[in-house]
C-alpha cells in the first residue's frame, strides 16, 4: 500500500477531529468507490480519533494508505494518559473499539508508554 497524502496532525479540538474524519474519507475515496465502505471508514476514523483524544496524549497523527482496493488508516498518539485516582468508568464510553471490530476487515492496537497506534483496514466489496 502507498501513502495517500501526508499524515494529518490533529489536536484535541472537536473541529480538528471533524476535519480529519472528512479528510480520511476523501483520501479513502481515491481507492474505494463504494459509499457504504466510505461511510464505514469515516465512522471508524471518528472512533479512532475520539479514542486518541480521550485516552491518549500529545499530538494525534492520522495516516491513510491505500492500494489494490484496500485502505488502511492509522491513528497514533503519544501514549496513554495516566488514569486519575478515583476516576469512574463511564457507561457511555468504550464502544469505539467494538464498532471498529465489527466493521474493519482487520484492525489492531499497539501500545507502549510512548505511543499508541490504532489501525484498521477496509476492503472494497467484490465487483
Which terms summarize this structure?
127 residues; kinase; HATPase_dom; globular; 6 strands; alpha+beta; transferase; ATP binding; 6-stranded antiparallel sheet
Summarize the structure.
By secondary structure, the protein is of the alpha+beta class. The protein has helices at 14-28, 35-55, 96-103, and strands spanning 2-3, 8-10, 60-67, 70-77, 106-112, 115-123.
Gyration radius, in Å: 14 Å
Instruction: Give average pLDDT, whole number.
Output: 89
- Which percent bin holds the helix content? 25-40%
What oligomeric state best describes the polypeptide chains here? Answer: single chain
How would you characterize the largest beta sheet?
6 strands, antiparallel
Cα distance, first to last residue?
20 Å
How many strands appear in the DSSP assignment? 6
Helix segment tally: 3
User: In what range is the share of β-strand residues?
Assistant: 25-35%
Shape: globular
